[in-house]
Amino acid sequence: MDGTGSEDAALATAALTAKETRALVQEAKLVLADARTLRADDARALGDVGQALSAVRARSAREDLGSIPISRVRDVTEGRLGLGALEHAGYSTVLDVLDATPYALQLVPGIGARTAAQVQAAARQIAEAAEQTVAVRIDVDDRTPETTDLLIALNVLVAAGPDLARARDAATDIEKRLTVLLPAARPARGRWRMLLAGKEGRGRAREAVAQIASILAAARARGTRLLINQATVDLLRPRVTGFEAWADFELRASEYYSLLTEAAGLEPDRAAAEGFVPDDISSQVKAQQLDDTHRRVSLRGYQSFGARFALVQRRVILGDEMGLGKTVQAIAALAHLKARGGRHFLVACPASVLINWVREIEERSTLRAHPLHGPDRLAAEAGWLREGGIAVTTIDILHRIEVPAGFTIEMLVVDEAHYVKNPAARRSQAVAEWCDRTERVLFMTGTPMENRVEEFRSLVGYLQPELVPQIRGSDAAAGAEAFRRAVAPAYLRRNQEDVLTELPDLVQVNEWEELGPADLTAYREAVARGNFMAMRRAAYASPAASAKLQRVLELVEEAAGNGHKVVIFSFFRDVLAVVRGALGGRAHGPISGNVPAARRQRIVDDFTAAPGHAVLLSQIQAGGVGLNLQAASVVIICEPQVKPTMESQAVARVHRMGQVRKVLVHRILAADSVDERMLEILRGKARLFDAYARRSDLAESTPDAVDISDQTIARQIVEEEQRRLGVTPPVPDTSPPITPPRAEGAVCPDSGNVPSRW
């Protein structure tokens, strides 16, 4: 406090009587006691989690030690111990040594007391190292007593909700300040004490009382004491049963994992969690405070960094891989700006995710969402202008949103921003206009670099035009680091394997099938016609004899036997119709491009709510955007996709934050067919994709690095198959060209679909 503040404080407290001062100090003592109680209860709850976590780690480490050969004990002692006698006696693993008593070891010829002690000390050293490095995962299919105890301990913190973190911070601040101020204020409790304190003591006492009064006034205004007491009550609630803890975990897995990540020290590598941004930007982002007053959910470390990155850099692209919570990071940034006085915010997204945005805003913040879509759009727009909050509209009707002159939007969020990569499109122009009138802009996309350097440059051009000259194709050729340096001020990307250390395994299996006689006949006909799309789905042309369809049904039945939910993806609606017919109609969906957004969400909700096994059908290009399908743990892809990103996006809708089971991905492939030709080409292109796009770098160092949907390569595949099968291509049509129809059942904007005829 500066000199003026001290004088003001002294004047303010001079008017207080000794009785009033004593009452003030007494209130401060009660508040301090409440803060200390909460901190003690919170520490106890965290201690219970730590103890349960140690037991989980010990069990997991013990399982690992059973596979570590006893020779590792020799390595720890740098070869000083001879273990031949123990190995002869049947001690083959480190666990065997740990489980043995010193007496049992000494019964082995050649092993004395000293050697036995050294062997067990070395084994314990290996065990301690294993416990520190063992992976901590919660598997709903392996409910050990130790994991159950861990979930029960975590449930205490999860049930307390995000208010616990705010209460903990407030209690810590109050304890820190009042612990110092209360002793200093003691003389002010009585006239004689003040007289005996001397001039300096009286000054310190008056200033301390003034600061205490200020702290208590702020606490009353914010309801801090009620917040602290409620958190204490929440921490002292009776513990749930193991069954209840598991049931709650399946509903709120991401919240459990968030707390576990913090408690277990599972935070990912710092550089990876920060998207490998330069140190100067990282330092600025870390210095940015993030106000959580209007947020209802806790953030993981990398999510907090992403929200603060958007606030510090002001106009950026958040390009996190799917499943990492880009939406909640955007909401956290919006909630922060609301707490700092912002009133109006705007989100533009594809229609397919509009409902999801509204739900996420309402569930994860106190801000009001106004869906500016459908017949009530104008009324909702008027309500947003009048009341404030977050307007959520579609990218395609953004140009219709009208605001008064001088109206301020605190932040514009554009989800799936790669939809506006074409500057000539009307929706792109509308986004550009809104970017020009808005100071803070956040673009969100998991695949902003999937096509060309120029398209990525156009996205950055909306945000920070001065960076565009620095984004060159040569940066990609120079490697990952060069590209990251060029775009770091405007681009942040993290990948699942870098930051979600606890994700269940993703198991991918290629299911190769032989084309049967009917399949092969349909395939040869499609090849002879040069019909690429018909070649891709020829294996389903005769359902009664389809080897691929039979394998799909087998996988569905296997999943049903285990009570697992299944999502079946295909590019083609007619293939999904065949699968649905083979399942006897017992499937949800299909979700396709012509299904309205509200209907899509209802289909997903019904699928998620279905008890036990269920099947959801979806076109892969529709299911890859805007849908959360964590209820499923089995994914079946009916045919390989021409874009690796399309398939990875669809799988990421299942294998994402909040998933609690291992995810099995089955690709149904036909040997000696277009499927095999496509995979051969994609293998080389996937390496480029991994080298650049998955490390926040340009997706292509050369044209078409991750996309084989263009006509040239598709024609190449057709011609190779025509030669291999020895079929004669049709005589070219010399009549005037006409615009060919889109392949039947294929609906994928901007996919570059090959015409059904050449």
TrEMBL record:
SUPFAM superfamilies: P-loop containing nucleoside triphosphate hydrolases. Its EC number is 3.6.4.-. The keyword DNA-binding does not apply. Residues 307-466 form the Helicase ATP-binding domain. CDD domains: DEXHc_Snf (cd17919), SF2_C_SNF (cd18793). Residues 548-699 form the Helicase C-terminal domain. Residues 729-740 have a biased composition (Pro residues). GO terms for molecular function: helicase activity; hydrolase activity. It holds the Pfam family Helicase_C. It comes from the Bacteria. Residues 723-758 are annotated as: Disordered. Keywords: ATP-binding, Helicase, Hydrolase, Nucleotide-binding. The keyword Hydrolase applies. PROSITE patterns: HELICASE_ATP_BIND_1, HELICASE_CTER. This is DEAD/DEAH box helicase.
